[in-house]
Design a protein that fits this description.
Oligomer: homotetramer
Number of helices of chain A: 10
Largest sheet of chain A: none
Largest interface: C-D, 41 and 41 residues
Radius of gyration of chain A: 20 Å
Order of helices and strands of chain A: HHHHHHHHHH
Distance between the termini of chain A: 46 Å
Helix content of chain A: 55-70%
Shape of chain A: elongated
Strand content of chain A: under 5%
DNA sequence: CATGAATGAGCCTTCATTCAT
DNA sequence: AATGAATGAAGGCTCATTCAT
C-alpha cells in the first residue's frame, strides 16, 4: 500500500536498490547533522540497517558516499524543471519558476540541502566529480533562461549574464544558508517573494508581470523592439568547462 | 629595524604576542590549504615555530583556534571602512566603497578568505562565536548604507533591505568562492566592475553616478522627491541578534 | 586440438578439474607476487575465472589453498626423478642428476619456487601437511643416494649423512633464494656447476667423474676397498617422522 | 643491582630507551610466536607495557618495527666477532669461531632467530633495509676468512668462494630452521660439531686441526706451499652491492 | 612560561568466509 | 554445481589533548 514495501516482499535486486537508497538517505541525514568528519560509516550503516561492509559494496569510500548524495536529487530537480519549463512562456516566467522550484526543493529536502550548502559546496575535490557536472548542467538551465530573455528583450542586454547568474544563485544560496544555520526565515518559502523581487530588480522587469508561482504563463515574449543583442557573449565564462 | 623585529630583541610579552600571531598566520595558511580536519595542530605549531603545547596556551582547542582567525582581520577591515566611509558622501558611493574594500581585502588575503568562505561560513558552531559577532557588526555597516540610501531616496524603498543585503553579500561571496575554488577570474578584482554593475541594478541607480573606486565622492544625496520611507523597517530581520 | 582444450569441449568433471588447476595456477602466481597475506581470494578467483565461492569448493580455506600448491609439483618432480634415477648408475651420478633436476625444476617454475621457498618453507603449520609429507618423501631420494654412496664407498663414511644432506639442500636453497630475491644469478642454471663443485667437495669426489648432466652414467660404483660402513646409521634423524 | 632497573629510578631519556627496548623485545617474541601478520601492534604494546601510540613514536609502521629487530643483534654479533677474530690465527680457525659464535647466538636467542629465519629472510622489502645492510656487512667477515684462507693456502683455491660461503651459510641456516620448526636437534649447539665437520669437508681441511671451540688458537697459517691463488676473484658476486 | 612526551579513543577499510538461491 | 551477495571481525594508524617537569 505505502511506497515503502516491507522487506519481505522484495526480490534480490529490488532489495539491494532499497538498501542503497537507505544508505544514501541515512548518510544525508547524518552528514547534515554532524558534518562529514564527525559522521562515521558505522553510524550511517546502522541507521540504514545494513552492515558497515555493505556500504563499501556500493560506495568505495566515505568521501565517495558523500559525493554520491546529490546524484538523484539533481536528476529529479533537473527533470522536473525540464518538464515545467516547456509549459512556460517568457524568460522571466521561466526564471521565476526555476528559482521557485529550486527553493521549494531545498525547502522540502532540508537535509540534502544542508549537505549541499554546508559540506559539498566548499569541497575542493567535489568540483571534479560527476555529481558536480550534473550541477553545472542544472545551472545551464538558468543560463538558457537568461540568454532567452536577453534575446527576446525581456532582460536588458547591458548586464553580464555570468554575473547576473552569480547574483541570482548567490542571493538564493545566501538565503538558504541563513535558513539552514539560523532558521531565518523559519519557512524557507517565505523568502521566495522578497527574494524574487530582488531578482526582478536584477533583470529589470516590473513585479506585476508575474502571476502566481508555477502557473504564470502570461504572454510576455518580445513585446518591445529591443534589439536583443547583449553586450556580452552568452556563457562566456570559463566555469562551464 | 624592519617592522618584523628579530626575536632576540623582543621582550617577554612582545615575544608572546608575536608567537600568537605566528600561530594564527600558520593556522590560516594551513587550514586554507588542507581544510580544518586535515590540518593538524602539530603541523601548525611547527609552521609557527612553537611547540604543540604552546598552541593550547592561547587557543583552548583546535576549533577555538579556527574561530580565532577572523578576529583581527575583521577588526582591521571594520576600522578601515569606518575611516573611509566618513569621507564619502552618498549611500551608493558608500556601498560602492564598502564592496570594493571588502573584495580588495579578500583579494589581498586569499588564505584568510578561504578559511572564511570554505570553512567558517558553514560551521554551525561558528555562529555562536565572538568572531561571528564581529562579522555581524561589519554587516551593519552595509545595512546602514542601505538605510541611509533609502532615507535619502538614492535607493528605492520598495525592496526589503534585508533581502537587498542578502543579494549583495550573496553575489559577492558567490564570486569569491568561484575565485577560490576555480580561479575564476584569476584576479579577483577583475570581478568588481561587473559585480558592482549588478549591484547597481539592485539599488536602481545608473552606473554613471559612480566615479573611480574609493574616490567617488560625487554629490548624490536626496535629488528626487522620494519620501524616503521604506516599506520595510530597517534591519527587521532576526539575524542581528 | 591442442593440449589445452577449449572450455566448450570439456565434460563436467573434466571442466571441474581444469578449473581446479586454474585456481592453483592463479594462486601460485599471485602468492608468489604478493605473498600470502597480501593476496586475496577474490583476486585469485578472478585470475582463475571462477567465482570466489568456487574456490571454497575445493580448498577449504585460503591457507589450505596455499598448502595445496606443492602437491602436483612434487609428484611430478618425484616421478621424473624416479624414472631417471633408474637409468643412472653410481651414487654420485645420481646425486648429480637429482640436484640438477631439482634446480632445473625451480628454474622452470619460478612462481612455484617462490611460494615454496619464501612462503611455505617457513610456515609452522605447513609441516603437518600432506604436502610436506610428499616433500619429505622426495628428500628420501637424496638420502637413498647418499646411503647408496656410502655403502658403495663412493661417498666417504665419516660424515653424518643427515648433515650431509642438510648441507646439500641448504646450499641449494640458499642459492635459489638469492636467485628469487636478488636475481643473482640471473639464470638459475648458471649456478649449477659451481654449486655442484661445492657438493662434490662434500662427498669427496673429483669433478671429473661427472659427465654431461642427466646423461652421465659413467661407471663409478665401489672402486676402492672402502668398507662402506658409515659411522652413522642412515636416516637416524627424527626429521622423517 | 640487576640489569633491569625498576622503572621508578629511571630518568626521562633512560626510561624512553628502556621502553623502546621493551617494545623490540616484545615484538621479537610475538612475531616469532605468531608471525608478522597474525601479531598485532596492540598485543605488542601491551606486552611491552606501553600504549599503542607510543609504538608509533619510535617505529613508524608495523613493518618498520619488524625491520628494526635485527639492528642491535647484528651489531652485537658483529662486534663480538670482530673482537674474538683478532685473537685467532688461521682462516679455518676463524671460520670455526665465526660459525660457532653465530650458532651460539642463534641458540641463545631463539626468538630473534625465528624472526630472522622465518620472517625477515623471505621478505622482499627487507633487502632494501638498513638492517639488511648490516647483515651483508656481517657476511663480509666470512668472506674475509675465506679469502684469507685461500691466500694462505689453508683453503684450496679451486672453489668459488661465493658458492663456498653460500654452502656454509645455507647449511647452517638449514640446520637452524629445522631446529626452529621441528626442534631437531633439541639443543641447537648439538648440531655444531657435525655441521662443522661438513664445513671442513668443504674447505678441505682435516677435523683434527681444530681444538675446542672458541679456544682453538693453534698455529695453522700457511704450512704448505700452496700457491694461495684462487681461480676466483674474491667476492666477485654482485650480492655485496 | 614552555614543552617534550605520552596516550586514549576511535575510525576507515579490508576480506575470508558463508549461504540462500 | 555454482555463485552473487552479504558481513563479522578485526587492526593499523592518527591526533587532539594533557601534564610532569
Amino acid at each position: 500500500m505505502s511506497d515503502s514495501k516491507g522487506k519481505e516482499f522484495m526480490t534480490g535486486p529490488e532489495k539491494t536498490e532499497a538498501r542503497k537508497s537507505r544508505i544514501l538517505e541515512a548518510a544525508t541525514r547524518i552528514f547534515s547533522e554532524k558534518g562529514f568528519q564527525d559522521a562515521t560509516i558505522s553510524e550511517i550503516a546502522k541507521a540504514a540497517d545494513v552492515s558497515d561492509a555493505f556500504v563499501y559494496e556500493y560506495f568505495s569510500t566515505k568521501e565517495n558516499l558523500l559525493f554520491s548524495i546529490p546524484g538523484e536529487h539533481m536528476q529529479k530537480l533537473h527533470q522536473d524543471l525540464d518538464f515545467h519549463l516547456k509549459l512556460i512562456r517568457g524568460a522571466v516566467n521561466k526564471l521565476h519558476a526555476t528559482l521557485y522550484m529550486q527553493l521549494l526543493y531545498y525547502s522540502d529536502h532540508p537535509e540534502f540541502t544542508a549537505v549541499m550548502m554546508l559540506t559539498l559546496k566548499n569541497n575542493r575535490k567535489f568540483i571534479d566529480t560527476e555529481a558536480h557536472r550534473k550541477i553545472r548542467g542544472y545551472l545551464k538551465i538558468i543560463d538558457r533562461c537568461i540568454s532567452e530573455g536577453v534575446e527576446s528583450g525581456e532582460i536588458h542586454a547591458d548586464i553580464d549574464p555570468y554575473y547576473l547568474r552569480a547574483a541570482l544563485i548567490g542571493a538564493l544560496e545566501h538565503i538558504v544558508i541563513n535558513w539552514l544555520l539560523r532558521k531565518n526565515p523559519e519557512n524557507l518559502m517565505d523568502a521566495f517573494e522578497p527574494l524574487f523581487e530582488v531578482c526582478l530588480k536584477l533583470i529589470h522587469k516590473e513585479p506585476e508581470a508575474v502571476g502566481c508561482p508555477l502557473l504564470s504563463q502570461i504572454k510576455c515574449p518580445p513585446q518591445n523592439g529591443c534589439s536583443g543583442k547583449s553586450r556580452f557573449p552568452v556563457s562566456a565564462n570559463p566555469e562551464e568547462a
